[in-house]
Amino acid sequence: MESSRAFFSFISPFWSYFIIFIIALFRLIKTLKYPHSSSTTLFRKHRLPPGPKPWPIIGSLPEMLSSKFAPKWIHQLMKNMNTEIACIKLGNVHVIPVTNPALACEFLKKQDDIFASRPTSMSSGLISRGYKTTILSLYGEQWKKMKKIVIKDLLSPAKHRWLHNKRMEEADNLVRYVYMSSQNNNEGGLVNVRIAAQHYSGNVIRKMIFNKRYFGEGREDGAPGIEEIEHVSAVFTILKYLFAFSVSDYMPCLRALDVDGHKRMSKNALSIVNKYHDPIIEQRIKQWNEGTKAETEDLLDVMISLKDANNKPLLTMHEIKSQITELMLATVDNPSNAAEWALAEMMKQPELLKKATEELDKVVGKNRLVEESDIPKLNYIKACLREAFRLHPIAPFNVPHVAMHDTVVSNYFIPKGSHVILSREELGRNPKVWEEPLKFKPERHLMDDGSDVFLTEPDLRFITFTAGKRGCPGVVLGTTLSVMLLARLIHGFTWSAPPNKPIELLQSETDPFIAHPLEAVAKLRLPKEVIYSLLD
Ligand code: HEM
C-alpha cells in the first residue's frame, strides 16, 4: 500500500497512464519500423506459460498499476488461471512467477546455469553502486569475485568461529534488553518483540562488521539508540523497495520520472545507511593505509586487508561500501521476521510454546542461557522456525533469477531475459504439497527417527536459503541468528498477551509483517542469578 500511496502522491493516475501511452506509441512505431524476430525455433515449438493478454509494448503494466499491491495481483491472477507457472509481460520483460516446487527445482537446480543471473533495476543498481556486490550483481566476473570473497573470506567456518564472541555479546544483550523492558512499569512490562528481534539482528551484523553495537552514544539498558533505530528502519525501507515491481524497471525510459516514487524512497533510505557506514569505512581504510591500524578485529578489517596476486588491495572502497550494505540487508530481515511470527503463532497455541520450553529445559537446563553449541539439539525450535519461514516468509517472492538464454521448462518456452520469481508465499502454502497449509504446525518438520532438523530446504517446497549457484552463502550464520533469537526469547521468558489485547495473527495487506508489531508481557523464567552478570 505504501508503494501505491507513494505513487498516487507523486503523480495522478491520468498522467501516469498518459506518459505510458506516449512512450508505448513511440515504441510501437519503432517496432513496426524495425521488426525484430523473437520467434526462435524453440518459440515455434513451445508456448509461453499461460498469462494475461498483454497490451502492445506496455504489457500488463496498467493492470499491475491499478492493483493495490503487485504480488497480490500476480498470485490472484495465477489462482484465477489455475496455474502454477505464468508469464506476465511487464513492459518488455517476461515475468515468470512459479508456485510449484518441482518447477522451482527445474529453474534453480536442473537449469541453474541458465538462470544464474539477476535483473538490472533502479534500486539494485543504486544499492550495489553499479552491480559491485554479490546478491544484486548480474552473472559475470564481478559476481564471481564477490561471491568467492563472501564464502571464503567473510562467512567461512573459521571466520564464523572467530566471530563467536561478538555474536554472543549480542545474544546476551538481547536477554538484557528484554529483561529491562519487562521491568519498565510505565509500559506495563510490555515488550515490543519486533524491536527486540530486528535490533538483535542489526546489532549482530554491526558488531561483526564494524565491531560496534552503537553508532552513537549507546544506551545502558541495551536498547537501540536513535541512530540504530534510524539505521535499521532505513535498511528495511531499502528492502521494501528492492525488486518491488517499480514501473521504471520494466520501462527504463521512465526512470527519470520516478512515477511510483520508488527511486526517491530508495535513495533517501540509502543515504541514511551511507551516513552511518561511510565515515567508519573511510576512516578505517585511512588507518590501515597510514599504518595506525594493524590488527584485524572485524569483517571490515578483513575486507580492507584482502590482497590480489600483486599484493594490491583486492577490494576498492566502492566495493567494500556496497558489499557491507548488502550484508546488512541480507542479515536483518529473515531471522527477525521468522522469530516474531513464530512466537506470535506459538502464543496462540500455548501447547507449542510448552513443547518448545520443555525441549529447552531438557537440552539447556535452567542454570545457564542457550549457547550456540545447543543449536544441533534444538529440533523443535528449528521446526518452529521452518514453519515460520514456510507460512510467513519475509518477501512474497525470491530474488529474481534471469534467463541468460532461451530455454524450455516443463514444455513452456522461457525467453532469454525472463525474470523468474519463485513465490515464497505460495510455494509454502501450496495445498498439493502441504496438508492444512494455513495451519502453523511445527510437527510436520520433525523426522520420525528424531534426526536433526535443518533450516535449509533443498527441495524448494518453501524458500529459506534456496539452492544452486545463486543459493545463499549465509546458511550457518542465518541459522545461528534465527535459532539463538527464538531460543533465547522462549528459554529466558514466559510470554503472555497484554490484558484486554489478544495476540493477532493478521498479516499486513501490503507487506509480510504481522499487521501490528507483536507486543507481549515477558516475565523472566530463569533464576535471576543466571542473568545477573548481564545486568552490571
Ligand atoms: C535466515 C537467514 C537467511 C535467509 C533465509 C536467507 C535467504 C536467502 C535467499 C532466499 C537468497 C536468494 C537465493 C536465490 O537467489 O535463489 C539469499 C542470497 C544471499 N544471501 Fe542469504 N539468507 C539469510 C541470511 C544471510 C546472511 C546472514 C548472509 C550474510 C551475512 C547472507 C548472504 C547472502 C548472499 C551474499 C546472497 C547472494 C547469493 C548470490 O546471489 O549468489 N544471507 N539468501
TrEMBL record:
Keywords: Endoplasmic reticulum, Heme, Iron, Membrane, Metal-binding, Microsome, Monooxygenase, Oxidoreductase, Signal-anchor, Transmembrane, Transmembrane helix. Heme binds at C472. It catalyses: L-valine + reduced [NADPH--hemoprotein reductase] + O2 = N-hydroxy-L-valine + oxidized [NADPH--hemoprotein reductase] + H2O + 2 H(+); N-hydroxy-L-valine + reduced [NADPH--hemoprotein reductase] + O2 = N,N-dihydroxy-L-valine + oxidized [NADPH--hemoprotein reductase] + H2O + H(+); L-isoleucine + 2 reduced [NADPH--hemoprotein reductase] + 2 O2 = (1E,2S)-2-methylbutanal oxime + 2 oxidized [NADPH--hemoprotein reductase] + CO2 + 3 H2O + 2 H(+); L-isoleucine + reduced [NADPH--hemoprotein reductase] + O2 = N-hydroxy-L-isoleucine + oxidized [NADPH--hemoprotein reductase] + H2O + 2 H(+). The chain crosses the membrane at residues 6-29. Gene3D superfamilies: Cytochrome P450. InterPro entries: Cyt_P450, Cyt_P450_E_grp-I, Cyt_P450_sf. Its cofactor is heme. It comes from the Eukaryota. It is a single-pass type II membrane protein. Pathway: Secondary metabolite biosynthesis. GO terms for molecular function: heme binding; iron ion binding; isoleucine N-monooxygenase (oxime forming) activity; valine N-monooxygenase (oxime forming) activity. GO terms for biological process: cyanogenic glycoside biosynthetic process. It is found in: Microsome membrane. Belongs to the cytochrome P450 family. PANTHER family: CYTOCHROME P450 98A9, OS09G0441700 PROTEIN. Involved in the biosynthesis of the cyanogenic glucosides linamarin and lotaustralin and of the nitirle glucosides rhodiocyanoside A and D. Can use L-isoleucine > L-valine as substrate, but not L-leucine, L-phenylalanine or L-tyrosine. This is Cytochrome P450.
